[in-house]
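Before the break, one more example. Copy the sequence into your notebook; we will annotate it together after we see the structure.
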Amino acid sequence: MTTEVPRALSGRLSFLLGRLYMRALDLEARELDTLGVSVKQHAVLALLAEEGPMTQQHLGRRLGIDRTTVVTVVDGLEQANLVERRRSPADRRAYLLTLTPDGVRAGEQGHGLVSGAEDELLGALDEDERRTLTDLLGRAVRSQSSGDADADAPPRPGSER
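Here is what the structure looks like once it is written out:
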């Protein structure tokens, strides 16, 4: 992928964010591949480490991914012995996703690898600029309505993405 930004698109936020997003995914995937986990799998490990056991449905809502994708991602983590499904003590019909000791280690190692990928991605920015960028993007994301839980859904008629 070329790093040249066409002048006609140099002020288009969607173009710039899209380009940066694709590069971030490539860098993170390359790093996380050394652990045998995908970017989405690492997101699950990070969320479970931070927030504790949760159902697949709750996980999907928290990450903004559809239930089919959640099943595929969690199945892969379970097969790798990084996550296990345990019956919920509050609802015997539900299963909680829980990190295994290997999952905790993989999540911690992945955090360092993702940080390295982010350093490479944002190498042109100093530490204060990186923090400002992250804060601004986080604020913009938090300000969006929670009605966009299924990012894979087609746009609603009359709306553009």
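Residues 61 and 149 are 6 Å apart (CA to CA). Strands lie at 83-87, 95-99. Try to locate both features in your own notes.
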